[in-house]
Structure formats: structure tokens, C-alpha cells
Design goal:
By secondary structure, the protein is an alpha+beta fold. The protein is built from 4 helices and 7 strands. Strand 6 and strand 7 form a beta hairpin. It binds tetrahydrodeoxyuridine.
Length: 137
């Protein structure tokens, strides 16, 4: 983990994550999440959580942002930020399933950015968040 000042990219991703979080559909948990990533082309893709009456059908913000990247032709996550919270915005540490989804499109330089309102920025590698993650070769 690395704590550091916000870079321009961090600022962009955190702002995009906050913006898309406003559209989160989370009537069951009340926990609204926004995620934004930048891909190898410099394109930004975002997603929010979308819950469902049939609870397991709900999807996470990170997974939806990744789906958007793949649909647009992106192949690699350079950095991804997630913001969550029921009220106050807080850092949203990706769930286990999302860590696996991030791993699929990550390399050793991919940064997972965690920050809340007015907090410092923490950057993690996917290996720190999901050691020995599964890969099918
Ligand atoms: N959630 C995400 O969108 N991303 C995560 O990494 C953790 C959890 C969502 C799923 C559910 O809609 C709500 O947050 C509460 O778990």
C-alpha cells in the first residue's frame, strides 16, 4: 500500500466515481457505490452498483465499470477508484468477487485507489488485495 498526494488521474477517477455513484440503484442496502477506471488507451469507464429484488442478481460498481471498459474495447486497467457509503462518502474496499474481476484485467502496475471524503489516497496493487488470485492459463 502506498499513501500519496492525489495525482491528476486520481482526481479524475475519484470525481468520476463520485458522479456515477449518484446514479447507484441500491434500494435494499442503501449503500451507494461508484467506480471509475482508466484503461490502457486513457479512456475512463464508470459504473455503479445495481441491486435487484432477487438479491444475488445485484451487481457491484467495479464489475459494471469493467463491463463498460470491455464493451468499449479496453483491455487493461491502469487504475480504478471506488467510492461508497450509505450517507457520508467513504473508501469502498472492493469485495472479493470484484478483486477477482479486477485481476482479470490487471497487471503488476495496476493501481486500486481507495479514498473517502477528505481522506488521503491509498493505492494498492491487485496482488496486495488478492494474493495468489486465480488465473486460468
Ligand atoms: N458493492 C459494490 O458495488 N462494490 C463493492 O466492492 C462492495 C459492495 C455494493 C453491492 C451492494 O449493492 C452494496 O454495495 C452493499 O453490499
Amino acid at each position: 500500500m502506498e499513501s500519496h498526494e492525489m495525482t491528476r488521474t486520481d482526481e479524475l477517477l475519484v470525481a468520476a466515481a463520485k458522479a456515477v455513484r449518484q446514479n447507484a440503484y441500491a434500494p435494499y442496502s442503501g449503500y451507494h457505490v461508484g467506480a471509475a477506471l482508466i484503461d490502457e488507451n486513457g479512456d475512463v469507464h464508470s459504473g455503479c452498483n445495481v441491486e435487484n429484488s432477487a438479491f444475488p442478481e445485484g451487481t457491484c460498481a467495479e464489475a459494471n465499470a469493467i463491463g463498460s471498459m470491455v464493451a468499449a474495447g479496453g483491455k487493461r486497467i491502469v487504475a480504478i477508484a471506488a467510492i461508497g457509503g450509505a450517507g457520508e462518502i467513504e473508501a469502498c474496499t472492493p469485495c472479493g468477487g470484484c478483486r477477482q474481476c479486477i485481476l482479470e484485467f490487471a497487471d503488476e502496475n495496476t493501481r486500486v485507489i481507495l479514498t473517502g471524503e477528505g481522506e488521503s489516497i491509498d493505492s494498492y496493487s491487485i496482488d496486495e488485495l488478492l494474493p495468489a488470485g486465480f488465473r486460468l492459463r
